[in-house]
Specification:
single chain, mainly alpha, 5 helices, about 75% helix
Length: about 140
Amino acid sequence: MTSTALVFAGALLLAGCAAGGGGASSSADECDTVKSEVRDISNGAQNALAAGGDPSETQATLEGYSDRVDTLGEDTSDAVSDELEKLAEALDDAAEFAATLPSDPDAEVDADAVAEQQTAIQDAASGVNDACSAD
């Protein structure tokens, strides 16, 4: 189960790296920064979920990523800020989910539930990138 989740996370990591791009507006540098940060946050969060381990550590990691998103949203346009809020919500949901994971490393983890959380994070990150590109 864990190896399946790691393979899935690896595929998402590659997809996240390929999703980059640049904006043509005067805020292209700011947009590139937002996209880079969101990619790092999204990939890190998805990898944290895939890695398993101590549920409280995974939860704390995901909450840290959510805090980074909140800070990132302080200096963006309204459209991008709205999408960043959705990403923060997906990270908060994933943190709540992580708290329900078994602490026994040999316990079976619902790989489909983990994949759902990872997909929600990736989708929200894509929304941020789309909003940033539209600015």
